[in-house]
Specification:
- The complex is a heterodimer.
- By secondary structure, chain A is mostly helical.
- Helix content of chain A is 64%, strand content 5%.
- Chain A has a 4-stranded antiparallel beta sheet, with no helix packed on it. In chain A, strands 1-2 form a two-stranded antiparallel sheet.
- In chain A, strand 4 and strand 5 form a beta hairpin.
- The longest helix of chain A is centred in the middle third of the chain and has 33 residues.
- The C terminus of chain A is likely disordered.
- By secondary structure, chain B is of the alpha+beta class.
- In chain B, the strands form 3 sheets. A 4-stranded antiparallel beta sheet of chain B has the order 5-6-7-8, with no helix packed on it. Chain B has a 3-stranded antiparallel beta sheet with strand order 1-10-9, with no helix packed on it.
- In chain B, strand 3 and strand 4 form a beta hairpin.
- Chain B is elongated, with a radius of gyration of 33 Å.
- The chains are: A mainly alpha, B alpha+beta.
- At the A-B interface, helix 2, helix 3, helix 5, helix 10 and strand 2 of A face helix 2 of B.
């Protein structure tokens, strides 16, 4: 009965709008072979896309109650979290989702780097992907201010200050970003506009182009770039398999595991809403979000100008990677220099992020109390007291407690 | 869209999709198909259940929270309501008209039951009139005329010292 009904609807639609063309296209895409070397790490792009969809839906829902003005933003977020049914869940899904999305986008970029997926003929796919990374980080940066609490206000102050250090146009950039000298109602309005209108459109266009190119060129094999790309038949003969169901199943498992981890974090470690923003009271130890920490810390060790130019050059080099690295090998084992550089890049970024995390905080390690200065170097401030490593309360919380 | 020949991408020719069933005898094939159908139904059921679980918080979220439904108790200073006058206030999130008539203080849901316009007290006629389509109500809220389908709902009022209390 149901089969006959759906069949009837399908035929009716096919007679009028030739839906079979679309169905054939989707079928072709789903059964298109993928190379045999695809492993779990090839799911990171899909995980990112799932998080974008989740961000889109939870963001729409938040907009129902969120009021974008300095006077009302904080209270409206508090209202969502405390009064609206499941408001806490929607807000946490959005806040955690932003972090997960950026984390998986970075992991996806690393996977593409180590498997040489950016090489000919996929340079343009990499460029669109790099644009997506920039847009996603901009999403994080603009969204961070919207709750209008102390952490977001001062985190954004520091973040925009970094942008303001750009040579020649820094001052202008700072004023345009903030809509004035300081973070104010004007900043909130323009960040909100960028976050909910401008960036989603740019993201949608970039992701459309990126996905089209991935499907059009297919997922890269580990063959050298000077060897012709394999056809579908050759891929199948070489041990490749159709995208659906094997790879889709792998992706579904990863997506579900990651979503489950996020739900666990939401339940056991909900992200807090701090005190309402106070433009006249800077809390101690203000830091930007984790994905900006390494850059933020690097800028402490060198003159601002050199740091900004250096960071800019590294970002430019990453963007132009396919044009800088023209070697034909894709296999990680045959690219020792590239792989070593990649690992070094990861280690340096992790180390800088860790230093930034501990900087301007106090920790007890092995019974000795240390104060970590702004550069992340430890200074003993008290003799043995505790045996385990315990973290000092967050600087912002301390300020709040005092208040 | 790509350069591969379409025939190569048919699922029947792709290893891992239907090759195993090709190799099986006929009765095994039907058994395998039945099992596949059963698993597909289970998967569909699980997917549907997950969808319902995910959509439930969303539906509850978009419903207005209890606080948005408005106060259950509204206080009006009696000096604001001399004899023969009326006042419109928000009670439980909807407009309510309070009248100080010769019979005492009366309150009604001010939303006309016809098409939702707000009724007004007229002292001369001692009636509540809807300005949109001429609906007319007496001091009990009963319909006196016009295209109105049902009477106005009255709201309990009590006087406490110098205040009029609407609701509990």
């Amino acid at each position: 009965m149901i089969k006959r009904l759906t069949g009837g609807i399908y035929n009716w639609l096919d007679d009028r709008v030739e839906i079979s063309v679309l169905v054939d296209f989707v079928h072709k895409q789903m059964t298109k072979p993928v190379p045999k070397h695809l492993n779990w790490m090839f799911s990171f792009g899909t995980v990112t896309l799932v998080f974008f969809a989740s961000q889109f839906v939870s963001g729409l829902l938040l907009m129902i109650y969120y009021e974008a003005s300095a006077a009302t933003a904080y209270d409206s977020v508090k209202f969502i979290m405390e009064e609206v049914r499941f408001g806490w869940l929607i807000r946490q899904v959005h806040s955690y989702g932003a972090n997960f999305m950026i984390a998986f986008l970075l992991l996806h970029s690393l996977r593409v780097f180590f498997y040489g997926g950016y090489k000919k003929p996929r340079e343009v796919t990499w460029l669109f992907g790099f644009g997506l990374l920039g847009v996603t980080m901009s999403f994080g940066f603009t969204g961070y201010l919207l709750p209008w609490d102390q952490l977001s206000y001062w985190g954004t102050t520091v973040g925009t200050e970094i942008a303001g250090s750009t040579p020649f146009i820094g001052k202008y950039l700072l004023i345009v970003l903030r809509g004035g000298e300081t973070i104010s109602d004007v900043t909130l309005t323009r960040f909100f506009a960028a976050h909910v209108i401008v960036l989603p459109w740019v993201f949608a266009m970039l992701v459309g182009a990126h996905l089209f190119l991935i499907r059009y060129k297919g997922i890269s094999t580990l063959d050298r770039t000077d060897v012709p790309e394999k056809t579908s038949e050759e891929l199948l003969k070489d041990g490749g398999y159709p995208f659906y169901p094997k790879h889709v199943l792998k992706e579904a498992i990863v997506v579900l595991l990651v979503l489950a981890s996020m739900i666990l974090l939401i339940v056991y470690y909900p992200l807090p809403l701090h005190e309402k923003a106070d433009p006249f009271n800077t809390p101690a130890g203000v830091k930007p979000e984790w994905y900006f920490l390494s850059m933020y810390q690097a800028l402490k060790y060198m003159p601002k100008m050199i740091g900004i130019i250096g960071s800019g050059l590294v970002i430019l080099a990453l963007c132009l990677l396919p044009f800088l690295d023209r070697t034909p090998e894709r296999r990680p084992s045959k690219r020792p220099w590239a792989v070593s550089l990649g690992i070094l890049f990861i280690v340096v970024n992790l180390a800088l992020s860790l230093l930034a995390k501990v900087a301007e905080s106090e920790y007890t390690i092995g019974g000795t109390r240390y104060h970590f200065d702004t550069y992340g170097w430890p200074h003993v401030i008290a003799s043995p007291a505790e045996d385990t490593i315990t973290e000092a309360p967050e600087s912002v919380d301390e300020t709040e407690a005092e208040e | 869209m790509d350069k591969e020949t379409p025939s190569s991408q048919e699922p029947s020719e792709a290893p891992g999709i239907s090759e195993p069933s090709k190799a099986l005898p006929e009765q095994d094939t039907s058994k395998s198909d039945r099992r596949r159908g059963f698993l597909q139904k289970c998967l569909g059921g699980l997917g549907g259940l997950s969808f319902l679980l995910a959509i439930y918080p969303v539906i509850r979220y978009v419903e207005p929270p209890p606080e948005a439904e408005g106060a259950n108790r509204v206080e009006i200073d009696l000096t604001e309501l001399p004899p023969g006058t009326s006042k419109t206030v928000i009670y439980r999130g909807r407009p309510a008209v309070v009248v100080h008539s010769a019979e005492g203080y009366l309150a009604f849901n001010a939303v006309c039951s016809h098409l939702g316009c707000i009724v007004k007290w007229t002292e001369q006629d001692k009636t509540l009139i809807c300005p949109c389509h001429g609906g007319k109500f007496d001091l009990r809220g009963n319909v006196l005329g016009g295209p109105v389908p049902s009477p106005l709902v009255s709201i309990p009022v009590t006087v406490e010292v110098d205040k009029l209390i609407l609701g509990a």
